[in-house]
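Run log // design_07
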């Protein structure tokens, strides 16, 4: 029942209460007159009867005044109380009108907020699903539409390093960019309907492209979209470059329900991210891979939380003496269904998640603990741990490692941290800060897979690097490839000039080992010495005088 319908019955009930109490007051007044008259009658005549009652009424002025009270109750009570009721009704009516006005505005606001993202003002996932559903119903089975899921790359680093407020500002700027993109010619020309944008959660956005034209080309659209969303945003007065990864799925060929279509677009996005691509269109075979990857990630998360990952070690050898001077650590994971998995299988799956931080923590603890055991047994070697791009943007990492070394009483010189050139490219200011703090502690820093595609000697000059590792693709078959041999020689000379140690990866034979030694490469690792093995097997290698 509405407010208006409730007010009228309420005032009627209030009037009924007024009438009831007026008649009650009247009865009390009449009763009081009767009692007073009989008392006076008894005082005058010594009896209580009608004659005495009349005599009392005629002889006592006080009773005359009392006789007026019923009239006062009837007239004044009714008039006054009726006024109160009318005033109450007026107040209720005014309040009702104000409430209806406020509730109407509030209802509109609540409806808007329930359908829109409060940070960017774009449609939210709920509203987007409704828009897609409506577009599907309008199309039936005679047309096509596309759903695109877009993620801002490295957004978690932006949030972590610049704070939530700045991160929200980035989202607003990106949303404004999407609104402009909706009017871009390449988007308008691809369909015959009105495109829509939405923000789902975090750094994830979505586009609806309805009523696709017959000549629609998904890859061309995604390519143009990627160029448009590779843009600059302003954070604390600084221009910061951002890029995106996108996945696209089409109705009805790749999904006939909203949730399925959005899920397929997400699967395409994750495949693109895993393969280092800016975008991908959903393919049926992706789902099987996605399901398998989800199973791996779920089991890996459990293994990390319960410290059940396996750490393997590969010896790093002094090429001149053939003795083991260090060990590079490798993570392995025993999946109940897929067996023992190496890092290449699951690291790309978690590279952009918080699991990578957790895995690094587990690895550092395990490796430093193992170092303690080796040192106690008389093997004074160092151990190397690989860091991810996210790790290099973690300002708390130097403090954590320093405390860990203190807890296990390991000198910093026995820990080496490796990272790729690609990792140096992201958030260079923060990366440099983190690396300088690690170097100040006394930890050795090494660029892994040097010259593997992101080479810039600027990193060797600007960052506190102690060592470079030549990517194994240059070492393999080096003896039969003159160009590879020349590249290895050039890298060795540059490292020597800059005072950097150099390690050759992927040594598989004696001939390559000797040639590397002749080129001035002092250290190496590879299958020629040993493949990665567990701690027990590595101890056997340490017990030997020479590695090969």
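design_07 sequence
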């Amino acid at each position: 029942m509405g407010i208006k319908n409730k007010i009228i019955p309420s005032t009627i009930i209030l009037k009924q209460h007024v009438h009831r109490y007026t008649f009650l007051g009247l009865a009390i007044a009449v009763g009081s007159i009767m009692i007073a008259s009989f008392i006076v009658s008894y005082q005058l005549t010594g009896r209580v009867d009608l004659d005495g009652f009349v005599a009392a009424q005629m002889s006592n002025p006080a009773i005359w005044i009392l006789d007026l009270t019923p009239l006062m109750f009837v007239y004044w009570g009714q008039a006054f109380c009726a006024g109160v009721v009318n005033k109450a009704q007026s107040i209720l009516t005014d309040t009702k009108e104000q409430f209806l006005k406020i509730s109407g505005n509030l209802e509109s606001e609540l409806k808007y907020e329930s359908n829109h993202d409060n940070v960017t003002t774009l449609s939210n996932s709920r509203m987007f699903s409704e828009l897609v559903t409506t577009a599907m119903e309008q199309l039936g089975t005679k047309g096509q539409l596309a759903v695109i899921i877009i993620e801002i790359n490295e957004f978690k680093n932006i949030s972590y390093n610049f704070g939530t407020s700045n991160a929200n500002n980035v989202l607003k700027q990106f949303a404004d960019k999407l609104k402009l993109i909706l009017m871009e010619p390449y988007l308008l020309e691809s369909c015959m309907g009105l495109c829509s944008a939405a923000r789902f959660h975090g750094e994830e956005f979505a586009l609806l492209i309805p009523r696709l034209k017959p000549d629609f080309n998904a890859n061309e659209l995604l390519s143009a979209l990627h160029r448009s969303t590779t843009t600059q945003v302003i954070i604390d007065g600084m221009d910061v470059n951002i890029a995106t990864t996108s996945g696209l799925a089409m109705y009805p060929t790749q999904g006939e329900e909203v949730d399925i279509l959005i899920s397929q677009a997400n699967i395409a996005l994750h495949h693109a991210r895993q393969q280092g691509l800016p975008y991908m269109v959903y393919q049926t075979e992706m789902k099987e891979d996605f399901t398998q990857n989800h199973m791996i990630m779920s089991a890996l998360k459990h293994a990390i939380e319960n410290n059940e990952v396996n750490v393997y070690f590969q010896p790093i050898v002094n090429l001149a003496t053939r003795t083991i001077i260090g060990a590079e650590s490798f993570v392995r994971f025993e999946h109940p269904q897929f067996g023992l998995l190496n890092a290449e299988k699951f690291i790309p799956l978690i590279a952009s998640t918080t699991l990578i931080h957790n895995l690094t923590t587990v690895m550092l603890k395990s490796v430093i603990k193992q170092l303690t055991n080796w040192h106690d047994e008389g093997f004074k070697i160092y151990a190397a741990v690989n860091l991810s791009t996210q790790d290099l943007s973690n300002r708390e990492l130097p403090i954590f490692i320093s405390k860990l070394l203190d807890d296990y009483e390991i000198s910093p010189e026995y820990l080496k941290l490796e990272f790729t050139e690609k990792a140096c490219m992201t958030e260079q200011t923060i990366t440099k800060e983190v690396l300088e703090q690690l170097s100040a502690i006394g930890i050795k820093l090494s660029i892994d897979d040097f010259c593997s595609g992101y080479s810039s000697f600027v990193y060797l000059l600007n960052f506190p690097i102690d060592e470079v590792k030549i990517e194994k693709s240059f070492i393999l078959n080096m003896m039969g490839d003159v160009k590879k041999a020349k590249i290895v020689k050039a890298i060795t000379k540059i490292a020597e000039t800059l005072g950097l140690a150099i390690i050759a990866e992927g040594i598989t034979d004696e001939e390559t080992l000797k040639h590397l030694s002749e080129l001035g490469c002092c250290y190496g690792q590879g299958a020629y010495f040993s493949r990665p093995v567990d701690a027990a097997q590595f101890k056997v290698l340490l017990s030997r005088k020479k590695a090969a």
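Residues 1-8 have pLDDT under 50 and may be disordered.
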